[in-house]
Design goal:
heterodimer; A: mainly beta; seven-stranded mixed β-sheet; four-stranded antiparallel β-sheet; 11 strands; about 55% strand; B: about 110 residues; mainly beta; about 50% strand; globular
Chain lengths: ~120, ~110
C-alpha cells in the first residue's frame, strides 16, 4: 500500500519561500501523478499542482507564478516550493497521488503551515 | 475554472437514516472518450488522511462500504449514505477531474442528529 508523508517547517515568515517534501513508500514513484493540495483553516480544498516522475508539471494558474515542484526519484520524494508567502498561504498542506485521470487515491496526513508577519 | 457547488453546507441525520449530499458543476464533466463523468467524492476526518470514496461519479473505491453510493451525470451529482453510522461523521467533498485546474466543492459537514 502506497503511503505518503509530508515534512517541512511548520512556520514561515511573510515574503519568504515555503518548502515542503513528500516521501513516497510502499510503491514506485513512477506510477502516479503527485500533487499538492491545501486547506486553509475553516475553508475547502485547493489543488496546487502536480508533478510526474519525469518532471512534467501542471500548476493551478492561481498559484503558477509562485509555485515550483520537483521530484527526486532516487529518494522517492517530491517537493513543493511556494514563494512570496503571506498569511493567506497558511493552511494544512497535503501531498497526494493520482492515477492517469486525477482522482486522489493516496494522501498524506497533512502538515500545518503557518505564515506570520 | 470549473466551479463545484455543494449543498447543503451541513446536515444532521439520525443514526441509521439516509444522508444525501448534492454537488453541481458549472459545466458538464462528462468525459467523451469513455462516456463517464469525471467526478469524485472524498471523506475528510480530523487528523486522518482524506479518503477517496467514489470516482467516475458512481464507482466505489476499494474497501468503501456499500452504504456509500454516487449518482448523477453531466452537471448534477449526489452522494448518498444509505444508513448513517457514527463513523461517517466527517466533511465530504466532491471534485471534478475533467480538466485542470482540478477543483473541489466547498464541503458538506455531516453530523449525527
Amino acid at each position: 500500500q502506497v503511503q505518503l508523508q509530508e515534512s517541512g517547517p511548520g512556520l514561515g515568515k511573510s515574503s519568504e519561500t515555503l518548502s515542503l517534501t513528500c516521501t513516497v513508500s510502499g510503491g514506485p514513484i513512477g506510477s502516479y501523478y503527485w500533487s499538492w493540495i491545501r486547506q486553509p483553516p475553516g475553508k475547502g480544498l485547493e489543488w496546487i499542482g502536480y508533478i510526474y516522475y519525469d518532471g512534467t508539471t501542471n500548476y493551478n494558474p492561481s498559484l503558477r507564478s509562485r509555485v515550483t515542484m520537483s521530484v527526486d526519484t532516487s529518494k522517492s520524494q517530491f517537493s513543493l516550493r511556494l514563494s512570496s508567502v503571506t498569511a493567506a498561504d497558511s493552511a494544512l498542506y497535503y501531498c497526494a497521488g493520482s492515477g492517469t485521470y486525477g482522482t486522489f487515491e493516496y494522501w498524506g496526513q497533512g502538515t500545518l503551515v503557518t505564515v506570520s508577519s | 475554472d470549473i466551479v463545484m457547488t455543494q449543498s447543503p453546507d451541513s446536515l444532521a441525520v439520525s443514526l441509521g437514516e439516509r444522508a444525501t449530499i448534492n454537488c453541481k458543476s458549472s459545466q458538464s464533466v462528462l468525459y467523451s472518450s469513455n462516456n463517464k463523468n469525471s467526478l469524485a467524492w472524498y471523506q475528510l476526518k480530523p487528523r486522518q488522511p482524506p479518503e477517496l470514496l467514489i470516482y467516475w461519479a458512481s464507482t466505489r473505491a476499494s474497501g468503501v462500504p456499500d452504504r456509500f453510493s454516487g449518482s448523477g451525470s453531466g452537471t448534477d451529482f449526489t452522494l448518498t449514505i444509505s444508513s448513517l453510522q457514527a463513523e461517517d461523521v466527517a466533511v465530504y467533498y466532491c471534485q471534478q477531474y475533467y480538466t485542470t485546474p482540478w477543483t473541489f466543492g466547498q464541503g458538506t459537514k455531516v453530523e449525527i442528529k
